[in-house]
Design brief:
Elements (H helix, E strand, L loop, with lengths): L10 H12 L6 E5 L6 H13 L12 H8 L5 E4 L8 H14 L6 E5 L7 H12 L5 E7 L7 H4 L3 E4 L5 H12 L2 H11 L3 H9 L1 H16 L15 H24 L11 H10 L2 H19 L4 H12 L3
Parallel strand pairs: 1-4, 1-5, 2-3, 3-4
Bound molecules: zinc ion.
Length: 322
């Protein structure tokens, strides 16, 4: 677990939370909301650590006993609540809250971090509201959600709400550089992620999909007009097919950029620029535009209720030059 100061981005939120800690004006309930994968839970855990730190001044000090414990993930006053099956049930809230009352000593805080808070059942949300109506000194709830519209307005109105936005490409790239292993691959995944480090890491895990799409395009160029193209066997369902078309679209966008500008720093798939250059020399500009338009049409058809194989075939035939 990290400290608030180590988080990338979200500058205003970090400043505001640190300010509340320093002035000791901490609210009883917080709601961290915003798109998936941008660091809401990470921020919630960092804030929880700062709240529990006995030596800090607006953030975890990293030297006190509390910080040592929370760093290892085993602080007795930090309680994580996450869905049990599809929902967060009243039983879960009661268990953890009752337990907390019995173990609470002295003036320390008790912090409850509720993941996917939109999954609280109505009963759980009502019991939660009751807790907020009679707040216990030192108890802080941090609710985390991608979908605040599903949280009852009665709950929302009692929380201090912070909206987390997507991060800049640079920040996402910095967050995932170590996992990516190279700055170039980190850049590529940061661009494709649209500002979400969580999504970037997922893409990194699935970067085989991107490479597969590139291999297909390269092999179609080599075998141009000689063999009927076949979609890769790994493409099983609609989502696979959509992802495959997405990767092809992003790739041919890069090919178009090479053809029109020759500037490799503008590429999304900068780590594969040599392969992309091969594609750029194999097609003329009109063909690339044609492929991009067909890819767009294919994506639209896949989103509708069409035969997936037919939709993919027309795109692959176009790329193969038929
Ligand atoms: Zn500390």
């Amino acid at each position: 677990m990290t400290a608030l100061r180590e988080l990338r981005g979200h500058e205003k939120i970090k400043t505001s939370l640190a300010g509340a800690l320093v002035s000791n004006r901490v609210s009883h309930a917080y709601l961290f909301y915003g798109p998936p994968g941008v660091g809401k839970k990470t921020a919630g855990l960092a804030f929880a650590r700062a709240l529990l730190c006995s030596g800090g001044d607006g953030d975890a000090c990293e030297v006190c006993d509390d910080c040592t414990r929370s760093k290892r993930g085993g602080h007795p006053d930090l309680h994580l609540i996450r869905p049990d099956g599809a929902s967060i049930k009243i039983r879960q809230l009661r268990e953890v809250c009752d337990g907390a009352v019995f173990t609470s000593f002295g003036e320390g805080r008790q912090v409850f971090l509720v993941e996917q808070a939109e999954r609280m059942t109505t009963e759980a949300a009502n019991s939660f509201l009751k807790t907020l109506e009679e707040p216990v000194a030192g108890v802080v709830f941090i609710l985390v959600t991608d979908d605040p519209a599903r949280i009852p307005s009665t709950v929302l109105s009692r929380c201090l709400c912070y909206r987390f936005n997507n991060l800049s490409r640079e920040d996402v790239a910095k967050v995932i550089t170590q996992e990516a292993g190279s700055a170039e691959l980190a850049h590529t995944m940061a661009v494709l992620s649209g500002g979400s480090p969580g999504r970037a890491l997922a893409l990194l895990g699935g970067s085989a999909g991107r490479d597969r799409a590139l291999e297909v395009a390269l092999s179609l160029v080599v075998n141009s007009r000689r063999a009927m193209p076949v979609p890769p066997e790994e493409i099983a369902g609609r989502e696979d097919a959509q992802e495959f078309v997405n990767y092809l679209t992003v790739m041919f966008r890069d090919v178009m950029i090479i053809q029109q500008t020759g500037l490799s720093e503008l590429l999304i798939n900068i780590d594969r620029r040599d392969d992309l250059a091969k594609l750029a020399s194999a097609y003329d500009r009109r063909e690339v535009l044609d492929i991009l338009l067909t890819a767009e049409e294919t994506a639209r058809r896949l989103a509708g209720n069409v035969n997936q194989r037919l939709a993919l075939d027309s795109l692959l035939l176009k790329i193969a030059g038929f």
